[in-house]
Specification:
single chain; 93 residues; mainly alpha; 63% helix
Length: 93
């Protein structure tokens, strides 16, 4: 069971040109995943299996966040505004 990320590559996955992508939007999509995985990993009602899976995926997610921060189409100011909005949404949940 995986929430977002697996340790294996899907050979049938579409090949995307990441240089044409919006690095900020991609970063925020993964940051939203990060908040969910962090929530599951710390949730006392989550099973040990769910917490373990969330921790495994957090590692992958952090790598993806690091990648997108270095993307030429990444805007730090816009990303920080998006991060604050996502944190606000998660704190209201």
């Amino acid at each position: 069971m995986a929430y977002f990320y697996t340790n294996t590559r899907d050979p049938d996955a579409p090949q995307l040109n990441v240089w044409k992508m919006n690095g900020t939007k991609a970063y925020l999509r993964h940051y939203d995943n990060y908040l969910f995985l962090d929530f599951v990993s710390k949730n006392p009602r989550a099973s040990d299996r769910e917490k373990r899976q969330a921790r495994l995926e957090l590692t992958i997610c952090e790598q993806k966040l690091s990648y997108w921060r270095k993307h030429p189409n990444y805007d730090e100011a816009e990303a920080q505004r998006g991060v604050q909005g996502l944190k606000h949404n998660w704190s209201a949940a």
